[in-house]
Amino acid sequence: MTKRVQHTMVTLTLCCLSHLLFFFVLSAMAKDIDLLISFKNSLPNPNLLSNWNYMHGVCEFQGVTCKGSQVSSLTIREQPLEADFNSVSAHLLSLGSLESLSLHSTNLNGSISSLANCTMQLKELDLSSNNLRGSIYDTVSLAASCHSLESLNLSNNYIDQAFNHSSPVFTRLKMLDLSTNKITTNQDIQWLFSNFWLLKHLDLSNNTIKGTIPQITNCTSLQYLDLSSNQFIGTIPAGTFSGCLKLTYLNLSSNHFTGMAPPDIEVCTNLVNLSLSKNNFSGVFPMLSMVAMPRLRVLELAFNNFNGNLSKSISKLTSLELLDLSANRFSGPIPRPLCTYSVSRLKVLYLQDNYFIGSIPDSLCNCTNLVSLDLSLNFFFGSIPNSLGSLSNLKDLIMWQNNLHGEIPAELSSLKSLQNLLLDYNNLTGAIPDGLVNCTSLNWISLTSNRLTGSIPIWIGKLEKLVILSLRNNSFIGSIPPELGNCKDLLSLDLNTNQLNGSIPSSLAKQSGKIVLEKSLESRPYVAFANPENSQCHSEGSILEFDGIRMDDLMRLPSKQYCNFTRVNFVVTGIYYGYTNKASMIFLDLSYNQLEGPIPIEISAMKNLVVLNLKHNHLSGPLPQELGGLIHLTLLDLSHNTFEGSIPSSFSVLSLTTLDLSNNRLSGPIPELGSLITFPKYVFENNSGLCGLPLPPCNDWSIPTGDVPQQSSTNYRSSQGWWIALGLLIFIFSIIGFIIGQFLR
Length: 745
Hints:
Layout: H1 3-41, E1 64-67, E2 70-75, H2 85-92, E3 100-102, E4 109-111, E5 124-126, E6 131-135, H3 136-145, E7 151-153, E8 158-161, E9 175-177, H4 186-195, E10 201-203, E11 210-211, E12 224-226, E13 231-234, E14 249-251, E15 256-259, E16 273-275, E17 280-284, E18 298-300, E19 305-309, E20 322-324, E21 329-332, E22 348-350, E23 355-359, E24 372-374, E25 379-382, E26 396-398, E27 403-407, E28 420-422, E29 427-430, E30 444-446, E31 451-452, E32 468-470, E33 477-479, E34 492-494, E35 499-502, E36 521-530, E37 542-545, H5 558-563, E38 567-575, E39 587-589, E40 594-597, E41 611-613, E42 618-622, E43 635-637, E44 642-645, E45 658-660, E46 665-669, E47 689-691, H6 711-737
Parallel strand pairs: 2-3, 3-5, 4-6, 5-7, 6-8, 7-9, 9-10, 10-12, 11-13, 12-14, 13-15, 14-16, 15-17, 16-18, 17-19, 18-20, 19-21, 20-22, 21-23, 22-24, 23-25, 24-26, 25-27, 26-28, 27-29, 28-30, 29-31, 30-32, 32-34, 33-35, 34-39, 35-40, 39-41, 40-42, 41-43, 42-44, 43-45, 44-46, 46-47
Antiparallel strand pairs: 1-2, 36-37, 36-38
Helix pairs in contact: 1-2
């Protein structure tokens, strides 16, 4: 055979092979297109996935990623496909080169118990946040039928059947997420661990798994384990995690575990994140054993009953970024070598709601990366260290309810990143440092119940990001600075119980209609409480930051001991900025001062105002008719002033839950429309010229108006009204989304 002939034959062979390969490619492409369009045609709404048609190449289909000319990845998220799992299995899981499929939040339904028709290439399958049903056994069977599957996400579905499994099934899964389902028995967990030899990541959080924790077997590969937010009970036996030497993440929070901390936990020397929060663990936490975990970044022990001193060994955890010991029974001083200078990575230190004593150590300045510091509800004494002013990254300085005294350090003016300064319930004296004007990121200043003096600084009006200003129960003098109206994002202004005089500045309403809050903040818990029946306690409407605090520990608040308030509302609020460009202040409390003059008509421009409390001042003049335009107002207290004239008819349209106009000089008939006549008569009494329901008729002056024959019931109505108003105020805060957040744990 000549070389020419040989060359021709080789050429023909290569040509045939290339044509054959081209034919296979075209065939595979055609099959992918057919499968995808068949899936689309099975949907209840054929208008979805509009470009899935024969006019487009398969690689142009919405959500499709190709390798070469075949579908390798398909991602469709948050669309109402309403597809049945059988259709997904028959069409999408049959795509020959599919490696990854994500159908998160697409309203899938049906059972996963039917055998899936998986391609051999599939490695990642995300079916989270749908309406799929099945059992743990079905989950394992699904993983086994997809022979190459390494990652399966079925979180937020209805995997709920109790233990009823056959023999073990081998899978190659490395990641399994079954969080937020309906799993109930710990036997399911035992069976899971007997099947997943290669598993590295297992998330079973937010189910309703009951019983004791099983021994974690076959966990030599396990790196991530989340069992949080279940109903586990009892103690954790020794050896439970002894085989899980590669664990880097362990979350057992929000269960009902008791007894000591997990024994032998120190064998997990690779731990990066350990969370035991919100259980009933007790005893001395083995802080010294944590030294065996040089990579530990997050240690969360909040809301347990751990006690004892904070060991100096904590300083050896040089990788630690978050330490949360809040709501426990720790005591003693803060170790001075808590942070080792220049090597500390600590960003968040939560020690609130414990029994720590002593002074706040200057050495905290060595925690140079600190972002959030909360020492509230302890027994710290002495002054606030000036050295804290060197923590250039600090955003949250929270130290309310201690025995701190002295002045607020002027050095804090160096904290350019400071957002939340909360120092309520201490014995701080002196004036507010002028240097804080440099902290232009401040959005929550709360200095309630101290012994601060001087005037309210004019420069506060320069803090354009300020949302909450609470200076109640101090000894501030002088007038209210008109410049506060320049705080264009100010939503809550509380100056209750001071010695302020002069008139109410009309410029406070200057920010009305200008609030444009542009960013979303994290969630922050807070409490609101009231005690109006005791005239010596001025806690009505008081809002207190409450992160990491047990509700039961309110007994340690001085105002609880003195006033014995009983109505407390607890809320966790997510805050949204960007609500409207026409928002205004929603909480204004100037009560218990020495203010004079009329109510500025401009206050009526505060269209979002919910609480207006001006009682116990020397205000005078007529009540502005324009206040009737405050349609969101639920609490209006103008009592104990010297207002004159009649009650404006516009008040009839207000949807008030709490009203008090008593102890003024009002006259004339009470408007008979709206809700005014539904209030008890004491809210109108001691106004010598008022008449009409609920007071005696205007033509009958023989019945005295100063008696209060049902004092106990009216007091109850009053306190109930305060409570309802506070609840509504908090609801408005939640819906409108305005309270300052902090770094989430």
